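Data availability excerpt. The first of two example chains:
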Amino acid sequence: MIPRVGVDVTAIERIEKAFARHKTRFLRKFLTEREIEYCGGSAESWAGRWAAKEAIGKALPSGVARPRMVDVEILPRPDGRPHVWVGQKTSLAGRTVDVSIAHDGHFAIAVAVIPDTGPRPRPAALPPGFRLPERPRDGHKGTFGTAVALAGSQGFTGAAYLTSMGAARSGAGLVRLLVGQSIYPILAEKCTEVMVTPLPEVAPGVVGHVSASGVLRGFSGADAGVIGPGLGRDASTRRLLEDVIPRIQAPLVLDADALNLLAEQRPLLPRLPQEIVLTPHPAEFGRLSGLEVSAVQSDREGVARRFAAAWKKVVVLKGARTVVAAADGRSCVNDAATAALASGGTGDVLAGLIAGLLAQGLTAYEAAVTGVHLHGLAGLQLEAEVGSAGVLASEILPVIPRLMERLRTGSA
């Protein structure tokens, strides 16, 4: 993990004035007895420790409780360098913390470095089917494939952003995003690393049957694609998908509104190309299969395997302990279960991530298993760093390439 750094500057005069008002009672608010003894009556030493403990608190990520100052003790090592001890009941228990303290005129300056701010995702055996794409050092953007996303509508520009960036963070060499003309300016400004293309609309923000030729041009030459996040459920959009999906010559991930629209034409699903990954949550799976959500949840792996075979597709049944099932009977259950991923947009990131892995040459089953595993590990890491509530979908994006690198180097 990347070290976290905190810096603080404390005026020595401010510490002196506080001591003058409150005497030893003030010192005991932020110094241990051993620190008080070591510092003697030196206001410079008091200020240095105040600054160092403030810097340690600033190095912690938001959402992680700062330890009380008296639960952190800073005393010199035999060689004179500061040694930091933290109490066992603090958020820093068991962590290495390095500090440097200096004085310049009327100020004490401290820098704190925390190499590891929280437990890494628990080690787990890689699931069968997990595979990271090769990353040859002499590769270029063409080496790592082109992923195309058809996503977003008025009010759902975030879905388009998260999906396309999920593909980009997977390592895909090029990512194209196809969006309605009226929301094009928003995405063109936000997605600086993604090539955004506007499409004709049937209504503001609604991509429909008039966009068929533009969609097919956008997917021309693609190595993989993702369709559906935030796309909307207009009848014209359904006609568009029924027309273009069978004609796209690339593996696809169908997510969100693509699944909801296909649920209106269930007999079409088995006739679509087999190199398609379906990524429904339980309610979407229920609409696609005709089952009650309670029936889906009561036998998640069983129903995923049954319908993967019936639909001749790879199915990713999302939720705690996400299930990945293939038409040939293979399946796996992801062990990650964290409420940190229970927020809007995390599924859009997953859909883009799987599409990006497809673009880099993984099979549909491999891309689904690998994407789900990475997504789950990212959730566990963010839970450890931020907590189980308040994690944003966009925060998953920078975690993904770091996880892949650790897995490649065996340091996970």
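And the second chain:
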Amino acid sequence: MPVPKRKVSKSRRDKRSANKGLVFSTLSNCQTCGNPVLPHQVCKECGHYKGVKVIRTKSERMYERNQTRQTKVEQGAGAQKDVPASSKE
């Protein structure tokens, strides 16, 4: 089994990790909304990638959910109004 012949000095050891510095990722702007986006990633704000709508965003899902809830409430309220008061007893 191979064994090192001599102790590796601190400077020689530290030279190996000298090039492992932090690399800052580049940011680009979304073509549709202008928010900063990582390259080759879908914009989380508007859901577009290269100008094409790819995903539904959280705000869109919340809007659709509220619309369906409102229609259910309106339908339920309409059904309750149709029932005469004497038949409730």
